[in-house]
Amino acid sequence: MSEKKKFNIEYEIKSSPRILYTFLNEANGLTQWFADDVSVRDQIYTFTWDGEKQNAKLVAIKENKLVRFKWLDDEPQAYFEMEIIQDELTNDVALSITDFATEETITERKQIWDNQIDYLIGVLGA
């Protein structure tokens, strides 16, 4: 198995950081765009897609700014992070995604994020 590499992608989102943040860290918000179902218990988020469950621990959080999750069954250095970036001059809001994938799957993983973020933008009505 080849080692996972970190990659970053950024999306412009027409939303306030406060509203966007609720879709990144609350189970109800995540269920609307990220997974079919999300439940939380003791900082462990259980994400369900097509009946398959995956558990991730919430390892970092900054209110209205950032959430970082670590998959429990993944490599020690791998995580995925969603950071809200607001331009101080224009107040434009962007969502920066940091994730890990093997060299062979980075393109596919980026396409998955593109689709998920498109869905999020639709849910936000942005």
TrEMBL record:
Pfam families from the entry? START_2
Q: Which residues form a coiled coil?
A: none
Q: Which residues form the START-like domain?
A: 1-126
| SUPFAM superfamilies xrefs | Bet v1-like
Superkingdom, according to UniProt?
Bacteria
Q: Which InterPro entries match?
A: START-like_dom_sf (IPR023393), START_2 (IPR045736)
Protein name (record): START-like domain-containing protein
Organism expressing this protein natively: Mucilaginibacter pankratovii
